[in-house]
Write a structure and sequence with these properties.
Alpha-Beta Plaits, globular, mainly beta, 3 helices, 243 residues
């Protein structure tokens, strides 16, 4: 399988949880739907035009958390603006708690993408390699811009194994056997988050799944009920699961 790998680096991130209330809580990693939007921005695709092309049947996406992060809460003032004057001299505002993901050196996510459209893959590779996104990407919220670093374009090999396998990407819990998590002496902090994975053209959520990963970015040793993809690029050899 033809796979493009690139990193997204930024100082802050906010990926709003779809089930949160007035408080804007954030996922620790970008959901599949957020990565769809980031790839669409890099390619310059019009808003709401890519859901069919980037469906789970046509586009495969995996996310790896590359560093340890922490969450901080800030308060954001939202103003009620009905005309130009109310923007400059607002009379009403609402304070909303806003959760931000950050780290000692910011946040970094490794993104793995495969699409059946070869022209799309070539265009994505060109824009990532030359750091020429059509639109500037950001990590979930417009103020949180990010840089793109092209890592590799490689061939992923689909494998099956009934033993414990080191998986470096976020893993769908439905693909993990009961009792299929091996915890050793590593310093890990497990996170399990329910995130959107599929939306329709009218932006209606059609599928949400639970994903397991380590907050520090370490691989997890798992027994799987499905196949996984083995990748070799540069000095890196790893296994991933698509979301």
């Amino acid at each position: 399988m033809d796979i493009i790998i690139f990193d997204l680096r930024g100082r802050f991130a906010h990926f709003r949880k779809f089930y949160t209330n007035s408080s804007s809580l954030s996922y620790a990693i970008p959901p599949r739907t957020a990565v769809m939007g980031i790839v669409a921005a890099i390619l310059g695709l019009p808003r709401d035009s890519y859901y069919e092309r980037f469906s789970r049947e046509k586009m495969y996406i995996a996310v790896r958390k590359m560093n340890s992060t922490r969450n901080i809460m800030q308060t954001v003032n939202y103003i009620k603006a009905t005309d130009d004057k109310s923007v400059m001299l607002p009379k009403e505002h609402t304070q909303i708690p806003f959760e931000i993901v950050t780290g000692k050196n910011g946040v970094t996510y490794r993104i793995y993408v495969h699409n059946e459209d070869k022209e799309l893959m070539n265009e994505l590779m060109y824009r990532c390699m030359n750091r020429k996104p059509y639109f500037s990407p950001y990590l979930g919220a417009a103020p949180f811009g990010c840089n793109i670093s092209f890592i590799a374009r490689t061939n992923g090999k689909l494998l099956q194994d009934s033993n414990y396998i080191e998986i470096s990407s976020a893993a769908n819990t439905s693909n993990i056997m009961d009792g299929g998590l091996q915890i050793g002496e590593e310093d890990i902090m497990l996170l399990k988050e329910k995130m959107p994975s599929e939306i329709l053209n009218d932006r209606v959520l059609t599928k949400a799944s639970s994903y397991l990963f380590d907050s520090h970015g370490n691989s997890l040793r798992l027994k799987l009920t499905c196949g996984f993809y083995h990748l070799n690029y540069g000095k890196t050899s790893e296994n991933i699961l698509f979301m």
